[in-house]
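Dear H.,

Thanks for agreeing to be a second pair of eyes. The structure we're designing against is below in token form, covering all 176 positions.
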């Protein structure tokens, strides 16, 4: 019997929590020291508006309550009308507390993680017999052996989603 093969055990899930913390730390370091410098090299700006959050919520509420845009040109015209009515610039009407550089950094992190996980998954599945012959999926069911590479693939994926669960409160908001 191969030493790298083991049966699954619910106690193995204990590895997920510290691994999720490690992935979160890697994410913070990646966004700060890799993604942001790349974004700046690409010319992505790291500026925020000067208005207060209260002013922006009022402006955003005015835009959403007053107009139901049909297309992009109509949206731009509506932003101009609201900016004239409120005395704010059009860029203030479009204001978001999250900068484009922060959005780029988070997207860059997710792209890098998903690409790495995909490549790792393809590499480890290439030499599995059940990848090529699905009848092997049912051998010794439900007690199929689990190799270390597949085990760690599942643990890393699960830890990634746990890290997202913990970081959802500080992640970039996609909609206002």
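And this is the sequence the design step returned. I haven't edited it by hand at all.
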């Amino acid at each position: 019997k191969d030493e790298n093969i083991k049966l699954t055990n619910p106690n193995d899930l204990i590895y997920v929590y510290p691994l999720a913390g490690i992935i979160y730390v890697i994410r913070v370091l990646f966004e700060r020291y890799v993604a942001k410098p790349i974004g700046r090299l690409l010319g992505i700006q790291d500026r925020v508006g000067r208005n207060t959050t209260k002013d922006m919520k009022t402006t955003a509420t005015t835009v959403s309550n007053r107009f139901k845009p049909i297309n992009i040109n109509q949206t731009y015209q509506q932003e101009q009308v609201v900016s004239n009515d409120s005395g704010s610039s059009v860029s203030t009407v479009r204001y978001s507390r999250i900068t484009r550089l922060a959005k780029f950094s988070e997207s860059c992190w997710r792209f890098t993680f998903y690409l790495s996980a995909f490549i790792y998954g393809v590499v480890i599945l290439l030499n599995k017999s059940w990848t090529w012959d699905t009848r092997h999926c049912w051998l010794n069911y439900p007690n199929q052996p689990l190799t270390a590479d597949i085990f760690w693939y599942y643990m890393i994926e699960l830890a990634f989603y746990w890290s997202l669960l913990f970081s959802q409160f500080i992640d970039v908001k996609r909609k206002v």
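Two observations from my side: The beta strands are 5-6, 146-147. Helices lie at 16-41, 53-66, 72-86, 90-93, 100-125, 129-132, 148-167.

Warmly,
E.
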